[in-house]
Amino acid sequence: MSKPSARTGSIERKTKETSISVSLDLDGGGTTECRTGVGFFDHMLDHLGRHGLLSLKVTATGDTHVDDHHTVEDVGICLGQALAKAVGNKRGLRRYGQATVPMEDALAEVAVDLSGRPFVVFHCPFTTHKIGAFDVVLVEEFCRALANNAGMNLHVNVPYGGNDHHMAEAIFKALGQAIRAAVAPDPRISDIPSTKGTL
């Protein structure tokens, strides 16, 4: 049996629109169990966890009879808060992470900084409004909610791609890998990786 990790975060959030539960383990090996009621989003969260080697459990119910916006955004809020909790004061972490992931016709470049100062730059040339029943604008909404609540600087750039599913999938895979790099301990760093002494 593996030793339990101290780098974990669990968040529950209930509103009139959604009920969300998120559990995150930064050292869990990439096992995922995501049930949000939004099939495509579950598929993307699975990529995020597996490629980030993040053990991730997400359960959500929401007002999907209206649309998927509240569910996707609120999962991003909870996952960001769980990530902030799991990294703690960030002592000994690399802090920065970046990844470039190809997915057939598409290429996604993602860079993160666990700076404590949220900011998002998002460039992706989606060609349609929907991937199946999923609104493509929700990819950016999720990224913003995640970054704002994790205190993370997040840059997403897709320089090209012709298939929206491939572009979205490449983004989530690259995001997972970039987070994996940023939360990795660096044995040469014994303190908080900032000239300010805090993040």
Structural category is alpha+beta
Major sheet: order of its strands?
A: 1-2-4-3
Strand content: 25-35%
Total discrete domains: 1
What is the annotated CATH architecture?
2-Layer Sandwich
CATH topology heading:
Ribosomal Protein S5, domain 2
What would you say this structure looks like, in words?
With 199 residues, this protein is of the alpha+beta class. The protein has a single domain (8-182), classed as Ribosomal Protein S5, domain 2 (2-Layer Sandwich), CATH 3.30.230. It is built from four helices and ten strands; from the N terminus they run βββαβαβββββαβα. The protein has helices at residues 39-52, 69-87, 137-150, 164-182, and strands at residues 8-14, 18-25, 32-35, 55-62, 96-103, 106-113, 119-123, 130-131, 134-135, 153-160. The strands form three sheets. The chain has a four-stranded mixed sheet with strand order 1-2-4-3, with helices on one face. The protein has a four-stranded mixed sheet with strand order 5-6-10-7, covered by helices on one side. α2 runs parallel beside α3 (137-150). The chain starts with 7 loop residues before the first strand and ends in a 17-residue tail after the last helix.
